[in-house]
Structure formats: C-alpha cells, structure tokens
Amino acid sequence: MSLPREQFSSKLGFILAAAGSAVGIGNLVGFPVAATKNGGGAFLLIYALFVFFICLPVMLAEMSLGRHTTKDPLGAYNKVSNNHKGWGFAGFLSVLTPFMIGVFYLVVTVWIFGYLYKTVTGDLSQLAQPGTFGEFVNSSSLFIYMVVVVAVIYSILVMGVKKGIESAAKLLMPALFIMLIGLVIYVLTLDNAFAGVSYYIVPDFNKITAATVNGALSQAFFSLSLGMGILITYGSYLSKRDDIVGGAKMVAITDTAVAFTAGLLILPAIFSFNPNTNTAELSDSSVSLMFVFLPKIFLALQASLGYVGASAVAATFFLLVFFAAITSLVSIIEVTVASLIDEKGMSRKQALGFLGGTMGVLAVICTLSFGMVTMFTEFTSYAGASKSVFDVVVDIFYDTILPLNGLLVCMFVMRRWKKKQFHAELSEGNDSYEGSWLQKYVDFSLSTFIPVVLAAVFINIVAQKYFGISLLDLI
Ligand code: PHE
Questions:
Q1: pTM for the complete prediction?
Q2: I need a labelling partner for 375 at 20 to 30 A (CA). Which of 5, 145, 200, 314 fits?
Q3: 223 Cβ closer than 6 Å to some ligand 1 atom
C-alpha cells in the first residue's frame, strides 16, 4: 500500500520552498550582469513586464497541473493525456531537463562551495589573483567539495517534503534575505556606491535591442524555475485548500525583488572599487563576475576593514549564493526523485541513491571538461565553436529546451487538459479568481501570444546556437 502523498504544511512553507527554487545564482549574479549590460532601468522594466505578463501565467499552468494530478511531471502528462505517446514525450522532457540542468548547476554550486571554503580558511588573497579560477576548476579538491555538496542535498531530500524541503527553505531563505540586505546596506556606505546605483537604475533605452529583449525573457523564465518541471512537482504537494494564484504571485514578487536587490549589491561594489568602471569591460558571464571579478573587489576592502574583515564580507557573499544555490538544487533534484518514486515505485532513499550515482558521474564528467580530460574538454564543435561536455549540457538543456518545455506546457494545459478544468483548479482555494481580470488575462495570453513568443524564442535559439544564424539581425 502506498503512503498518502506528502504535502507542504502551510502556504508560507510552499511559498518559501518555491521561492527557494526560484532564487538562485541567476538572481544573485546573472540578473545584475544582464541589467548592467543591457540598459539598466530599461532592462529592469522589460524584465518586470515579462515576469508578470508572460511568466506568471506559465507558472499558474505548471502549479495547477501538478496539484490537479498529484503527480511528478511525467505522471502529470500521462494522467491528463491518458497515456498519449506524444504528450508522454513532453512529460519525459520535463523530467530529463531538470536532471541535466541539475548536473550543470551542481558543478557551479561545487565551485561556490569551494570559494566559500577558501575564503573562510583565509585564502581570499589567493582567490583574487589572476589565473586562480582557471587552476581552481582543474583542481582535484573539487571532488571533495562535490562530496560535501551532495551530502548536504541528500540530507535535505531524504527527509521528504515537509521535514526536508520545507524546513530547509524556512531556515535558509530568511538567512539569505538577512545576509543580502546586510550586504547591500554595507556596500551602500562605500565611496562612490551611488554611481553604481545610478548606473543600474537610470534607463538607457538605446541599449535595448531585439537580442536584449530576448535575453530578458530567457532570464525571467529561468529565474522563475519555469520549464523544468519543478513547479509541477511542488504543485503536486499542495492541498486543495491552498491558493495557487496568491502563492504564484508571491513567488514571482519575491524572486524579482531578490534579483533587483542583488543589483544594489553588485553594482555599487563594482563602482566603489573603480569609479571609472567602463561597463563594456565587465564580463558578460555571471561565472567570471562571481569567480574572477568579485574576489578582487572583496580583497580591496582590506584597506578599510583589514584582511579578516574583507574575508568576512566575501564569505557572507559566498554563503548567500551557496544557500540560494542549495535551495534551487534541492528543487530540481526533487523532480527526478518524485518521478522515480511515482513512476518506478522506488522508495525516496532508493531514488536518491540512484540519482546520487548517475548525476554524480555526469557532474564529474562536466567537471573534467574544463581542461582535465581533453576528450571531454574538446567534446564536439558546432556553429564554428569548440564545445566541452559542460557547454553542450548548458546549450541543449538550459538554452534550448527550457523555452520548448514552456511552450509544451502551455499547449498541454490549454488544449489537452482544457481551459475549463485549468481555471476550475485555480479557483480552488481562491474564491475571487473566477471571473476576475486575471482569469481573463491568463486565459487569453496562454491561448494566444505566450505560446507564439516561446516558439519564437525556441526557433531563434536553435538557429543561432546550432546553425550560427541570427534571426534577430534579420529584423
Ligand atoms: N531560478 C534558479 C536561478 O535563478 C534557476 C534554477 C532553479 C536552476 C532550480 C536550477 C534549479 O538560479
């Protein structure tokens, strides 16, 4: 006899767990970098519009599908479609995608943990040296850090939904908010901090191009953990009394607020380090910002705080990012855990053991693909660029399949499951949804332009990534 499905103990527990999933490396580092590069306030505005007008309806679709079916994503697609093969494939994609994104996210989380460890043990000055990151990603100590990170994730997930995921979120998320706000307050007291704030907030509409708009949408989509089956899975742990609509709004607001606040930390820090920062020189990637640029900034604080003080600030920052990454990893791995439990009848422990093995092997291969093993480093090449295993995983699953999964979930909910049932599900736990403006908007947008936009993003990415053709330049 199977046990009744576990549920979150409260709406707050659910919101913190889902916000824990949404708030991740993408918010704390990816968002500030993207905003800086793409016109500051102008990007913020476009981003916020995308969050509420495009991502929120998709979020409602995912959460309600999960709660209605009380299943993992594969089970949800199969149940509603009566085991239709084509839709089963969409379900399969929404389990495979989080599995593979989990692999690359694990690799980056291991780096974060390594940087945290090194800062705490007094090695900040070493981290600030040029070339350190290149050596670090090729060092064997990574495997020890990986064991620690996997053990942390395991110990959370093995406790289940309430005692594991929810309790961890209730502890880590408030700690994250406090550290973030504390760091922002500190950074704003530094000289020239406000030059960074104004660079971040004052809109520069000249920098907005078709590519920027596309980038803002992808960033919003990833940041809200859409297309990864996570919200279907977390939705399946909600009770019928819970208000999905209110919960989804809170998650979207929290996620956006954290991303915005992270910019108030990163940009003032950059400008106080160098008031004449030419942002064109700032790297495009969150990885180099976090692992190459920021350690230098933290070390420079020793002039006023001393080495220990500077290390404490750096450690707080890496701990903050580490907490954000852990709650995201937990959510993404839970998708596959739920699938193995629901579809294969495994126990939670068996599922975790199986995943620890398979994801661990893949994460090791990705880790080796930064130079340690040539075969993995120069794995393949397309569109004129050589690609490592890590690059391929990011290109395929993060860049390409996420918008496709979003498109499939919209079509599935509106056409196969049918609008009526979808809205009825959203009305449970929310008396004011039926007949509201929101309902009309969700109905209209999900059946018309949102799928079109997601299809366009998908086609553009395929053309650009794999064929080297930029469709946006043709506009
Ligand atoms: N929202 C997360 C972020 O911004 C994305 C994510 C969620 C990635 C869950 C992996 C797992 O980093």
A1: 0.94
A2: 145
A3: yes
Give the closest residue to 311 by CA, choosing from 148, 127, 450, 460: 127
In angstroms, what is the span from residue 213 Cα to ligand 1's centroid? 20
Which residue has the CA at smallest separation from atom 11 of ligand 1? 328
* Residue 225 Cβ < 6 Å to ligand 1: yes
The DSSP code for 282 is S
In the reported structure, the alpha carbon of residue 225 is separated from the centroid of ligand 1 by a whole-number distance in angstroms of 5
Give yes or no for residue 339 CB within 6 A of ligand 1. Answer: no
Q: Tokens 């295993």 belong to which residue?
A: 389
CA angle 136, 139, 141 (to 5 degrees): 105
Does ligand 1 lie within 6 Å of residue 327's CB atom? no
Please report the DSSP string for 312-323 in residue order: HHHHHHHHHHHH
Pick the atom of ligand 1 nearest to 22's CA: 1
Is there an atom of ligand 1 within 6 Å of 26 CB? yes
Q: What is the pLDDT along the chain (475 residues), one digit of tens a residue?
A: 456 789 999 999 999 999 999 999 999 999 998 888 888 889 999 999 999 999 999 999 999 999 999 999 999 999 999 999 999 999 999 999 999 999 999 999 999 999 999 999 999 999 999 899 999 999 999 999 999 999 999 999 999 999 999 999 999 999 999 999 999 999 999 999 999 999 899 988 888 888 788 888 989 999 999 999 999 999 999 999 999 999 999 999 999 999 999 999 999 998 888 887 776 666 567 788 899 889 999 999 999 999 999 999 999 999 999 999 999 999 999 999 999 999 999 999 999 999 999 999 999 999 999 999 999 999 999 888 899 999 999 899 988 999 999 999 999 999 999 999 999 999 999 999 999 999 999 999 999 999 999 999 999 889 988 888 877 666 6
Q: What are the structural domains, with CATH classification, of the chain?
A: 11-474 (1.20.1740)
Nearest CA to ligand 1 atom 8: 328
194, 275 Cβ separation under 8 angstroms:
no
- Among 21, 28, 109, 234, name the best residue to mutate to test ligand 1's pocket (greatest count of ligand atoms within 8 A of Cβ): 21
- Phi-psi region at 428: left, alpha or beta (left = phi > 0; alpha = psi -120 to 50): beta
Residue 328 alpha carbon, nearest atom of ligand 1: 9
From 219, 222, 335, mutation site for ligand 1 pocket: most ligand atoms within 8 A of C-beta:
222
| Interatomic CA distance for residues 404 and 394, integer angstroms | 15
